[in-house]
Each structure stands twice: as structure tokens, then as C-alpha cells.
Amino acid sequence: MRGRAVTFRADPFQDGPAAALVHEPDALIVIEDGHIAAFGPHDALRPTLPEGTPVTTYPRAVISAGFVDTHVHYPQLPMIAAYGEQLLEWLERYTFPTEARYADAGYAARVARRFLRELLRAGTTTAAVYCTVHPQSVDAFFTESARLDTRMVAGKVLMDRNAPDALRDTAQGGYDDSLALIDRWHGNGRQLYAVTPRFAATSTERQLDLAGSLLRQRDGLFMQTHLSENVAEVEWIRRLFPSRRSYLDVYAHAGLVGPRGVLGHGVHVDEDTFHTCHATGCAMAHCPTSNLFLGSGAFRLFDALDPRRPVRVGLGTDMGAGTSLSQLQTLNEAYKVAQSTGRRLHPVQAFWLATAGGARSLHLDDRIGTIAPGIEADLCVLDPYATPLMAQRAEECDTIEDLLFVLMMLGDDRSVRATYVAGALAHDRDHDPDHDRDAPPAE
Ligand code: GUN
Ligand code: ZN
């Protein structure tokens, strides 16, 4: 593949944007067996290719590693943009009734297909995904992801209290179902399993302990849950677990806090919590569109990333509470949240969060998130000229930093020209039947 490309050689929050950014104005990305074999200036690399090697050229585009969404709920796709409530009432009124539909495996398969197609349309190639309490919702998701060969992390929600009858498992039943799913899917091709207690309010202490035990049963498992998103939620957790020092301590006590753990939100947390995440390698997922939509509060990104004890932070859409599956739209809101806390999110830092930083937060940076030899060839091709408004603004750009800023502030799925998964074209905007409004629905 030939075109302008951006990727990273370092962390721009630690080393500064200039030292971290790799910008190749006319790059060649050589792809072999689903991996990147070589990356560099076109003129230097082209003579090394065997004669007749096909080259796809993307003029006036920006090629990036595929986006990484570190927190998202596929079953909530049908209820995105649910009016009026904040977190706890939103869960009761909209989320739980929607998730109850996933007892039907056929329904789960249809939504999983639509969700993964939407992710690819947004340029996202890896996500950490919550399914529902139903094991069949997990089989539906991984079956479709395996068909597409996308690298996905997902798991069955564990929830044995404070939820409707139809959505509760039991501590032992949740453990047994999770272990069977782990043995079916974890490390099956590119699929990875995350033990997924929904949050401390919907699991008994026994269920949390068993979740910790699950993590010790197999190598390389992930853990995902929610932490300190909303003030009323934090107060509820304090009442449910009076003997724990903090919300995070509820999870730490159960052995859930460590590498490959991902905590959604972390809006209302103290220095101690950031310190524990730093020390253990547990990540936080910054979900700005969700935090603004539900009125949850402003994540203190630059405090989390304090170079003296940086926390691994990824970017999450948190769709259905989040209002978009686009990481470009999510960066737009992340920029505004940073402004509201008196900080500047530089476009190079922003794109790092959406790609290499997200991969690092998941401890997957040796496989995805950058454009470099040996890394899996998950790529997105961004079009800064996607709309008339963007095109006239892009014409004004003299630097790659400015062009990236235009993409993150004005871009969305319309500016994703193409998405590649393991080297294969998985979304082609200009040949997408969903893009043609006169075409019959795909299902
Ligand atoms: N906390 C517990 N469950 C959820 C959920 O589904 N979405 C969000 N945003 N927060 C939660
Ligand atoms: Zn969530």
C-alpha cells in the first residue's frame, strides 16, 4: 500500500509530539501473510519488491494503524441515543430491557454482524467488547469476529444481583459459563477473552472472587469492568462494600486489578487509585462521549498520565452510552473535555491514544497499534477531504499536525476511506452498499 502514513515510535505524552510521531509523506507499506513486512519511504522500498507485486495507492489520504476502542457494548447498538437519564436510571430504563433480547441467539448474531460492520466503517480494527449475561451473545460475537478475522477482546457479562431476573446469572453458573467460553474462544485465531464482571453493584463478593479465580485459570486473559463513573454509583458502591478503602479496592481485593485489566471511566477517583493502576499495569478507558452524554463528569486525562506515575489509558466509545462508534468523534469530545479541565490534547497525543496507546493499554502493542515490521496489518485509510467543509479546511493545512487535528475535529465514518484487517480489505467506503441510500437494506 502506498500513501502518506503516520505512526509512532514513542509515547507523545512522555517524550513530546515531535519525538513520538513518525510521518512518511510518501510511504510504502509492504504486507505479507497478514503482517507488515516492511515500512518506509516509497522510493527506497519499491525496488526491493518482486516485479509484479500489486500496489494499492491512496492519494490525498492519511494511512494509520487501525483504531483501538478499549470499551464498548455491542448489545447496546439498538439503544444508542436513549433520551434523558443519567447512569443508574439509564441502566434500568433502557439498557437492561435491551440486553434481555440477547437470550435469542439469532438476534444476537444479527446485531453482532451489524456492530462489527459499523466498527470497520469507523476504522476500528480492535475493541474490548462487553456482550450480555447470555453465553450465546458471546458465541454470536466471536463467531462473526472470527469470520472477519478481526482481533477482538470480549466476554460474557457477570451479573448475579441488582438486575432483572432475566439478566441474572449465579456466581457458580457465571464461572462455569465463562470457563467454557474461554476454552472455546480465548486464543482461537485472533480472538481473546475478557472476564467481565459488569460492575461492583451487580456482582456479589463471591462472584467477584470467582472472577478473580477465572483469571488465574488460563494465561493471557483480560478483565474488564466499570469504575467510578457517576457520583450516585460511587455512593452506592460505598454502601455495598463498607469495609473497602475505595471503589478500586473492591476489585483489587478480588484479584481483578493487574495487567490486561481495563477499567471503564474512572471519572471520580483519587490519587491512590491512579497510583495503584500505574503500579499494577491495569488500564483505564477514557470515554468522553459517554461521560458527556450521561452527565457523568470529566475524566482527568492529564492527571492519569502524569509522567511521574503514568496510568495506561486507552480511548473508549462506550457505545450505547457513548454516542458514536467513531474514534475521530471520540477524540473530538476528548479534546473538549481536556479544554474544560484547562488542558490541551495535542493531535499527535490524540492519535496515539486512539492507536498505539490503546494497544499499549491492552498490553497488545507487540501485535497491533503501529505500522512497523512484524505488526499485524490492521490499517485504516483516512480521507481529510471527505466533506466540502473538511476539504476547504484541509486545503489550509501546512503541517501533518494540523491535518490530523482537522480529521479529529471534523471527521467521522465519512472520512474512513478504507479499513484493512490482517492485510485484507474489510471496508471500502466508495464501494459499500450501506453507503448508497437507494440500495435495499443489507439484511
Ligand atoms: N455501568 C454498569 N453498566 C454500564 C453500562 O452498560 N454502561 C455504562 N456506561 N456504565 C455502566
Ligand atoms: Zn460501559
Shape type? globular
Q: Which structural class do you get from the secondary structure elements?
A: alpha/beta
What's the architecture of the largest domain, going by CATH? Alpha-Beta Barrel
Helix content: 25-40%
Q: What's the Cα radius of gyration?
A: 21 Å
> Number of helix segments?
17
Instruction: Tell me the major beta sheet.
Output: 9 strands, parallel
Low-confidence stretches: none
Mean pLDDT: 97
- Total domains, how many? 2
CATH superfamily of the largest domain: Metal-dependent hydrolases
Total number of strands: 16
Beta-strand residue fraction: 15-25%
Distinct ligands: guanine, zinc ion
| CATH topology call of the largest domain | TIM Barrel
- For this structure, the quaternary state is single chain
Return the CATH class of the largest domain: Alpha Beta
Distance between the termini: 32 Å
Quick description:
This protein has helices at residues 12-15, 17-20, 42-45, 87-100, 105-121, 135-148, 171-185, 205-215, 231-240, 247-253, 271-280, 288-293, 301-304, 327-340, 347-361, 388-394, 400-410, and strands at residues 2-8, 21-32, 35-41, 57-65, 67-73, 124-130, 153-155, 157-158, 192-197, 222-227, 261-265, 283-286, 312-315, 379-382, 416-421, 424-428. It is of the alpha/beta class and 443 residues long. Pfam families: Amidohydro_1 (PF01979).
